[in-house]
Prior knowledge:
Largest sheet: 7 strands, mixed
Number of strands: 11
CATH architecture of the largest domain: 2-Layer Sandwich
Number of helices: 5
Order of helices and strands: EEEEHEEHEHHHEEEE
Radius of gyration: 21 Å
CATH superfamily of the largest domain: VC0802-like
Structural class: alpha+beta
CATH class of the largest domain: Alpha Beta
Amino acid sequence: MELQRIKRDFSVCKVTDYSKVNLESEYCFIGKTDEENSLVCLTEVVPDNTTEREDGWRAFRIRGVLDFSLIGILAKIATLLAKEKIGIFVVSTYNTDYVLVKKENEMKAMSCLIREGYQVEGEETNSRQEDGKQLLSNLDKLHTTPKGEERINKNLRLEAEDIVGYCRDKILAPDCNIYKDGKNWYCQTDNIKITVNASSYTIITAHLVKG
């Protein structure tokens, strides 16, 4: 399934009425009940008759038009993100669904979804996604040499006995960015960058990088 990352900031609001809502805005979701007037819109166009608001949301749109008979699409995404302790806010339209996450969880959510086989348009190319999936599906082949183990421990200022296990855990981190360049994969998470040979799955080195 393909998702589109929308690189805009969203706000979830309560408004006194909809007289000041910018209906010409690119994204505007209105929900009216007997208890409230709700609005989800771009942060830049939040109306001044807002009584309550929560800023800092980013959105993923499920690509295409979803048939009403489809079952479990949102449930699967929600379950995957819940395992990573990522809360969501969902808006549904006639055509599709929008999954909103807090801005600080956006990259973590995207990494999780890509790792689980979703294609995410808007940041990483499909080839990068395929590289990441290929490495993640072959983590049992990871190994290193005695010199590699010594080099990694020295570079990362560690004294790890299982350096392969340490690197595997880092590669599996939800926010790990995996990409291929030439003969190697590069995996970066936190302030650590790991280099893995793409054909042999040998961990060549790892080093600290500046934030």
